[in-house]
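quick one, 197 residues, struct below
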Amino acid sequence: EGLTLEEGDHIRAGRGTEVILRLKNDTFVHMDEDTELEITQLSGNESQGFLSRLKLLVGSILSDVKKNLPDTHSSFEVESGGVVCGVRGTVFEVAKTGDNVETTTHDGVVDVKSSQGTQSVKAGNSCTSSKSGGSSVHPSSAAMQARFQAWKKIRHHLAQKRAGKTGRSPKLGRSPSHGGGKGPGSGAPSHTGRGHR
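---
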């Protein structure tokens, strides 16, 4: 806890571990267990904002991105399996299993770009993409909607922790899109990992 990641770093959350990264300006990235990602871009800009791009190699991440990124000319993108998800301030998940990438939008809109074009995925919807096939948008599952509610509790806990109030950390559990059956708040141990400050 409290360590700093830099551009070019590689991080893996192992079995039974959840990691939360905190980026500048209250942007959070939650890594599920058995998830691996690379920080391909992480830098500030002249407008007190940030430019960041994460590459999801395997597993699932939930990103809670601060609103109004255009005000500081900031950008936040997640790339996985040839699919690039760009946002302007939203909560969304990206899960990669084999050649399939599933993007679920919990709040706001996510632009999902692939070789077949760009799909705008609104809150309450998921987009499934693969290298061999196209992309399809469909309503997100009840399990994914429950994860968003569980994330809100974790976000509240993080705010309480920063205010000096402690308590047992809630858990998000393994994403159903990540190929696991564990739901929100499942019994996997939680770990708050290092994050860029």
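Confidence is low (pLDDT under 50) at residues 181-197.
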